[in-house]
Amino acid sequence: MNGKLAKVMNEQINKEIYSAFLYLAMSDWAMQKGLKGAAHWLYVQYLEEMIHGQNLYRYLQVRGDPVELAPIAKPEGAWNTLLDVFRHVLEHEKLVTASIANLANVSQDVRDHAASIFLEWYVTEQVEEEGNATDIIQRLQL
Ligand code: OFO
After folding, report:
1. What is the reported pTM?
2. 2 C-alpha to center of ligand 1: Å?
């Protein structure tokens, strides 16, 4: 693959695993508050984010590009309310959406049609991720 595309794809692996860690921290926060349903939902997001990262990892390998792993930043671990947690989820997913959009733009700039098609799944997934967080925020605000 084009070097710039491989680089941003590697960086996206780190962002997906960071997302996983953030959800894992949020899940434990909810568990400590006795909010088991929320803890379960957030734990499932953790598992999904790991798969998002793994699929990028595999894609780089299938294309014959080296995977470059970087340290995962420590996720935040303190929120005041469950509403704060989900506001953070939405804010975070918006950052991820922007990052995926940049990745898709790079794949188009270098005319890598196969990568663009592969990345379409991530573009669509981000619509769902932001939609889910928005729905939950609205319900919590009632
Ligand atoms: Fe990987 O979708 Fe959320 O961050």
Report:
1. 0.96
2. 24
The enclosing H or E element of 27 equals helix 3-32
Residue range 20-51, pLDDT digits in tens? 999 999 999 999 999 999 999 999 999 999 99
Measure 125 CA to ligand 1 centroid, in angstroms. 8
pLDDT score, position 77:
83
Residue type, 10: N
Q: Name the residue of 12, 129, 130 to mutate for ligand 1: max ligand atoms within 8 A of Cβ.
A: 129
Looking at the CA of residue 52, tell me the nearest atom of ligand 1: 1
The CA distance from 141 to 135, in Å, is 10
Select from 123, 127, 134 the least CA-distant residue to 12: 123
CB 25 within 8 A of CB 76: yes
SS (H, E, C) 36-98: HHHHHHHHHHHHHHHHHHHHHHHHHHHCCCCCCCCCCCCCCCCCCCHHHHHHHHHHHHHHHHH
CA 71 to chain centre: 16
Could you give the CA distance from residue 25 to residue 46 in angstroms, rounded to a whole number?
9
